[in-house]
Amino acid sequence: xxxxxKYLSAMSQPDVEFKAGLAVGELRYTHCHQCGRATFYPRxxxxxxGSANVELRPxxxxxVVYSSSAITSRDADPYSVTLxxxxxxxxxxxxxxxxxxxxxTIGMAVRLSFDxxxxxxxxxxxxxxxxx
Length: 132
Ligand SMILES: [Zn+2]
Prior knowledge:
single chain; 132 residues; mainly beta; Rubrerythrin, domain 2; five-stranded antiparallel beta sheet; 8 strands; binds zinc ion
């Protein structure tokens, strides 16, 4: 298998590549070489311009909270459902952990982290960026 074949087989299954990224501590998105847009989740074809000249890249993981809601239920502690903007140019739905859900504020700097979902699979979450 040449490098091109390997690349193509990987990109034919972006969801598989995305999960493989999580397993090694990477939040992967696709960067389009044609128009420069970032797409999340990774896609085989750029939804902005239709180009297949896209590349998987790992995010640096330095996010900013765009919006957040604290979800409360009878059976669990409150948790946040948060839209996070990444500097590479995409926005993702995630959760900010490590602080009370109601203390997550718009514009807060957050850092990529990982935990596991109900099935034990890794998932990308965020924690407050520690002041330096
Ligand atoms: Zn494009």
